[in-house]
Amino acid sequence: MKKRFVASAMILAMSAATVLSPLTAFADAEEQELNIAIFQGGYGDAYWNQMVELFEESHEGVKVNMTISPTIGDIIRPQIVAGNVPDFICLNDGGEDGVILSLIKEHALLNLNDVFDGENYAGTGTLRDDITDGILASSKCAPYGDGDIYLAPFNSGPQGLIYNKTFFDENNLEVPKTWDEFFALGDTVKDIDGRSLFTYQGIYPGYMEEMLWPAIANECGEEALTKIANYEEGSFNNEGVLKALTHIKEIADKGYLLEGTVGMNHTESQTEMMLGKAAFITNGTWMENEMQDAPREDRFEFAMAPIPTENADDVHYVFDSCEQFSIPAAAKNQELAKEFLRFLYSDESVSAFAEASGALYATKSAREVAKDKLSTAIYNMYGIYDEANASSLIMSFSAVPADCKINPKDEIFNPITSVMNDEMTVEEWAQNVEDAFAQIRADQEAAK
């Protein structure tokens, strides 16, 4: 679906020409066209329509051609093969279409170091300094492990244990910091009203990455996730990882898992939790909007806690999502694409995105810039980073060869049902993943 946005009442109630000041002067240039390809996900298209209009108004002589679709990867793949690449892409490296992973593998993305080392859109400092700590150095942005940035962060959001703040406040309950406190709370909430300690999106066990990756980082350090992401031998079957896997299995073994969890989909398990059947569920800030029409117990208020750790003073890792922007190395209008990227990090853009989506850009100031556009619950959930010893954590797997039949995330998370049902031990779980990693390494070697 190719579209050019026509002016409408949706535009911000201000003059973009006076509020936004581009760093690069395009006003005197001949008309330039910027071709952008946007993945249309759960946030819809209102924000992107608004950004196209604002960018055109603040950059005289610029025309933006936007193609936006839920299947944007499938749309642009043949264009890329034909050499007709977009100037700017909003699409994740984790997309099932594999487009961005292919561009990474082929070193076909533009190096963006100069964008982030240059001035931010407001001209108050470098753009690098504006981005949430740790994200630019992650494999989500620096996929080759050398610190060079080839993908820019879009929105980010904490994920952890969602709970009902009202229930905790009314019963004077402390949010557990350690695994011992977590399991002890299971007995307490059962005594209060019979609710279980925990549930998760049973038939979509990938949601459990919000618990697994922080648990492994706590036991083994963040570097352990880098080894896992690169399928290193022994990275998933070792003492620290086994300890993290054991904590997950203990939830079922000790009777703290809501009955029927493994057969529920995401909306079913989330509804059960909101009705007071379980104290916690793994999820992200999007749950409030996703479940806005779902039934719930009286005075339900969304809140988020980090995953428990072995010791109370350990670093409490918060698993973070991060969607991405990129500019192909073959883009015809690279400088204008870079200017558009800078523009997207402006306060006006950050605020508009929060208003349209209830989510935040991956910038340090986004929470306060967009405070009046966020619900109280979402604003508070984003505050999880401000807690003592909290640290953002991003996990992204290295690309597998095109003919590799193994999906590493499936190998790691699909067995959780069997583990919770006591049909598989944690040792078998870990070894099966190691076997899958060995096959990936063999496929990588064969592809050289």
Describe the structure.
Helices cover 40% and strands 15% of the residues. The protein contains 20 helices and eleven strands. The chain has helices at residues 16-19, 46-58, 72-81, 99-105, 113-117, 127-130, 165-170, 179-193, 209-220, 223-229, 239-253, 266-274, 287-290, 334-344, 347-357, 366-369, 376-382, 408-413, 416-420, 426-447; strands at 2-3, 32-39, 62-69, 88-90, 152-164, 196-199, 278-284, 302-305, 316-326, 360-361, 390-393. Strands 1, 2, 3, 4, 5, 6, 7, 8, 9, 10 and 11 form an eleven-stranded mixed β-sheet that branches. Helix 2 (46-58) runs antiparallel to helix 15 and helix 9 (209-220) packs across helix 11 (239-253).
Quote the distance from N terminus to C terminus: 38 Å
Class computed from helices, strands and strand pairing: alpha/beta
Compute the gyration radius: what is it?
Answer: 23 Å
Report the β-strand fraction as a percent range: 5-15%
Helix content: 25-40%
Pick out the low-confidence regions. Answer: 1-29
Shape: globular
- DSSP summary: helix tally: 20
How many β strands by DSSP?
11
State the major sheet: 11 strands, mixed
Query: What is the average per-residue confidence, as pLDDT, rounded to a whole number?
Result: 90
